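Why DUF6265 domain-containing protein? Reviewers of the renewal asked for a concrete example.
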Amino acid sequence: MKKLLSITILLLAAQAIHAQDLSKVSWMLGQWKSVNAKTGNTSYENWTKVSDREWQGKGFRLSRSGTDTLFQEKLKIITKDNTLYYVADLKENAAPVYFKFTAINEEGFTCENPEHDFPKKISYQRDGNKLKATISGDGKEFSYYFNR
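Here is what the prediction returned.
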């Protein structure tokens, strides 16, 4: 019985650490907007907190006129098996893609999935009310810049 109680306490402590880690980037919650100067298209990422163990996000890009959705993705940050994951669900993929968190601090995070075709790495970095989201892998890298 003591062994079971010790294991339960350890599991709860591990979950608390992950929830605490996710709270380091609570600044990410809300709406972020990016305008591409070349195309005039506007991109958004909206994040909401579902629970201490799950956030939901939505990313989408609108045409210059704002009437056509050019791109859309469902996003999540979840705790699964005591590990934080960034989950991207795009219609182009047969199933949602899980990226394991490899670094997190008060200014951002990095998550990776070396088995995925592209991207293999996703990074979010904050600078005040600005956000830089970078996707990379296999020698390619693209950055997106958002404002509150």
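The first strand starts at residue 30 and ends at 35. This is the kind of structural detail the renewal will allow us to pursue systematically.
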